[in-house]
Amino acid sequence: MTKYGDEIPVSTQLSIDSHADFLPENKLLLNAVGEGIYGFDLKGNAVFINPAAERMTGWKNEELLGRNIHNSHHHSHADGSHYPQQDCPIYNTLHDGIARETSQDVFWRKDGSSFPVHYTSTPVYKDGELIGVVAIFRDISIQKQTEDSLRQALEQVQALSEKLTNENHYLLAELADRTGDVGISGESQVIQQMIRQIKLVANTNSTVLIYGENGTGKELVARNLHRLSDRSNKPMVSVNCAAFSTSLLESELFGHEKGAFTGAFSRRKGRFELANNGTLFLDEVAELSMEAQSKLLRVIQEQEFERVGSSETIKVNIRLVAASHHDLLKRVELGLFRMDLYYRLNVFPIKVPALRERPDDIPQLIRHIVTELNRKLGKKIKGVSKQGLKNLMAYSWPGNVRELQNLLERFSILSHGPILHIPKITPQTTENPVKGEKTLAQVEAEHIKQTLQRLSWRISGPKGAAAVLGLPPSTLRSRMKKLNVIRGV
Ligand SMILES: Nc1ncnc2c1ncn2[C@@H]1O[C@H](COP(=O)(O)OP(=O)(O)OP(=O)(O)O)[C@@H](O)[C@H]1O
């Protein structure tokens, strides 16, 4: 839109022969159409008004003919502010002979009410000389109402979906609490030492950094830290830092104001605000860009931030728990992670041991996982055969507890009896429980892995595997997690 409305092609200019009364030949036709039509002379005075225009505006022909229509019922904008005639598209067509079109104005009825209009102002030429303008308009109240309700519905859906995502996570954790899923299985010294650390630090406000390989139970530890803290009746809000681009992550963490960027239809709270008085869990924290790291540092230091597109400072009270499967200190040495942020996060580090460091925990983990699986699959599996257990304990579990869960799930689905007979495991056999047959999940996992290997394990960006596979990076990451696709295995 230009200041005066969108200009439209010159070919739409009208050229007529009669002069003084410049539309008489078409009068019958113009009187019959549903659109309102005004004819203006060069002074901007009405010389023609059709019945549809009368019906829409309430102004009678005789009340407007020979008078300046802009002053009569186009004098103000929708918000009531004065609408200078020089800004009006019709006035400008009268002066430069260029056709225009707009849907941004309202016309005022005789009774003082207004309605949104779409109108074109078309110059009228006679013998190549501009003699007036024809304005054709229609009431677009219904169209605008539909647009408004669609926009409102979309905003509501977005707000609800955001709320549901948070509630869902919270409820799942609650449910997990009730079903005992947050219980950390393991009697090994390393796990018992870790549980002691959790209990010690849970009820403080100290920031905790959880580190360990993928699938070891870092999120489980975070949930327990929250559950055992005096913030447990407030939300624990999780953010997977690897799932968002830098710009999206910023609005995800800090929220945004309506119109802060394209697609920001409404004001939205960020995760920091949603986690107020509760716990914010930053998973995969090593994936934060340097820019995001600086912003995070400020929030940790000052517990305050601004929404994207706002200058208002928001204060929050949050307990921060971060997790990473990377060695963060190594990333600091490589210049990929800010040292000051590292020290801010590493206030109380908790290491979650890899499963191969604690094979003695495998029997207890199997009992725990089989109970969960029986509930999930409606089965009555009692356990694993003696030889099966030996085989499980002899394996190195690069995908840790998650890999054990996945393997037990596959064998439970395939098993017809109450005891799972699990053969000797190699990285291949974990994925291949039925000889010669590949499940859909296996084929998917292989394809994802091959693509990642080909692209040097780059996930996001135009040259990343997500783009090649046609998936959002967050979806690819969750598929990798689910299918236990791990680098270097
Ligand atoms: N000690 C444990 N006892 C019972 N279940 C466990 C234990 N450790 C992990 N799990 C289960 O293993 C699965 C993976 O754990 P979780 O998602 O917490 O791992 P993670 O380290 O956060 O993984 P990633 O780094 O890939 O995000 C979960 O279903 C979790 O409940």
Automatic annotation (TrEMBL):
It holds the Pfam family Sigma54_activat. InterPro entries: AAA+_ATPase (IPR003593), AAA_lid_NorR (IPR058031), Homeodomain-like_sf (IPR009057), HTH_Fis (IPR002197), P-loop_NTPase (IPR027417), PAC (IPR001610), PAS (IPR000014), PAS-assoc_C (IPR000700). Residues 101-152 form the PAC domain. This is Sigma-54 dependent transcriptional regulator/sensory box protein. Keywords: ATP-binding, DNA-binding, Nucleotide-binding, Transcription, Transcription regulation. Residues 29-68 form the PAS domain. PANTHER family: PTS-DEPENDENT DIHYDROXYACETONE KINASE OPERON REGULATORY PROTEIN-RELATED, TRANSCRIPTIONAL REGULATORY PROTEIN. Residues 184-413 form the Sigma-54 factor interaction domain. GO terms for biological process: regulation of DNA-templated transcription. Transmembrane segments: none annotated. SMART domains: AAA, PAC, PAS. One of its GO terms (molecular function) is ATP binding.
